[in-house]
Amino acid sequence: MKKLVKKEKDDPNRYWKWDKKTLTQDDWDFHWLEEKKDKCKAVLVYECSREVIQLRELANDFSSKKKEWPFENQLPLEFFPHKPSKQIPNDVLDLMDDWSNSIPHLKTVDLQFISELQGEGFLEGRTTNFQTFQLTQTKEIAAFEIDWKLGAGQIKKQFSEWADVASKRFKKVKPQNTDDQELNDFISRMSYEPVNQTRSHYDARLKELGAYRLQMAVGSWKEAAKQAFDTLLKNLYENQAEWIEANKSTPNTVSQYAVWP
Q1: Which carries the bigger pLDDT value, residue 129 or residue 60?
Q2: Which residue, 40, 81, 216, 219, could crosslink 56 as a Cys pair with Cβ 3.0–4.6 Å?
Q3: How far, in Å, are 43, 107, 161 from residue 99 at the CA level?
Q4: 28 close to 85: Cβ distance less than 8 angstroms
Q5: Which domain holds residue 181?
C-alpha cells in the first residue's frame, strides 16, 4: 500500500515539465484576464488541465484518432493542450465559461445535519440498498470513507466508479414521500450551502500557476522573478516567500481544478 501511495503522490511523470524552450509569456502571464475577470474560473480549469501529462496524452490520442473528445466543453480539442488560454477565441472562452458555471458545487452535509434529519424522522423509509438516504427522486445523501493518502486523482477515480454504478440503479428506486413539503421546508432552513469562490480567488490561483511554471522553466525563484520583472516592468511577487509559496501550492490547485480523466 505504501508503494502505491508513493507512486500516486511522487510520480515524477505526473505533471508537465516546462522549460525555457517551451514556456512562452502566454503560458505564465495571465494579466490579460484583468479585462475578462469573469473568465478566470474557466481559464483556471483549462490551464490546470494542461499540467496533467495523462490528459495531454489522452487529448493527443483522441485528436489523432479523430474520436469524440469527452471534455470538449472544458478543454476544446482544437486548442488543448498545446495552445495557452490567451490564444482561445472569445466566443469559445464564453462557452467554456458557461459550462464551468453551469455545474453547481457538490453540496456537502455534516453529521449533525444527518442526525437532525434522522431526529425529525425524515430518513425513515428512505434508505436504499446502497446504504444511502434518498431524499427525493434526484437527491440523496451518501457517506464515504476517504483516505487522502491516495491522492485526489485516485479518489476522484473511485468516486467516478461508484457514480457509474449508483446512477444506473437510481432510476429504479422509487422512494416514498419524495414530494414531502415538510422535508423541503426543513432543508431550506438549513445553511449547509457550499461557499462560492470569488473571481479574485481564481485570479490568485492563476498567478501562482504562472509563477510555478516560470520557476520550473528557469530553475530558481530569483531567475523567475528577474524574468517576470523584465517582461512586465513590475514585480510578479514582492519577495522570496511568495514565490516559494506559489511553487508549493500549485500542485494542490492542479489536483483540485484539473479535469481528471
Answers
A1: 60
A2: 81
A3: 12, 18, 23
A4: no
A5: 111-189
Beta partners for 170?
A: none
| Mean pLDDT score, 93-112 | 77
- Looking at per-residue pLDDT, the higher value among 56 and 137 belongs to 56
Separation between Cα atoms, residue 210 and residue 74, nearest integer Å: 20
Q: Is residue 8 part of a domain?
A: no
Same domain, 117 and 159: yes
pLDDT per position as a tens digit, 169-201? 666 555 555 556 776 666 665 544 445 688 899
Report d(CA 79, CA 236) in Å as an integer: 27
Q: What is the mean pLDDT of the chain?
A: 82
Query: pLDDT band at 205, cuts 50/70/90?
Result: very high
In a domain, 180, yes or no: yes
Contact (Cβ atoms closer than 8 angstroms) between residue 117 and residue 123: yes
